[in-house]
Amino acid sequence: MARDAFSSAWEFGFDLWSLSVEANTVIALRTFKIANGGSAAMAEANLMVAEKIETAIEAQARLLTGGFGASPGGASRALVRHYGKKIRSNRRRLSR
Question: How far is residue 90 from each of residues 36, 50, 67, 75, 95, measured CA to CA in Å?
Answer without folding.
Answer: 18, 13, 23, 23, 8
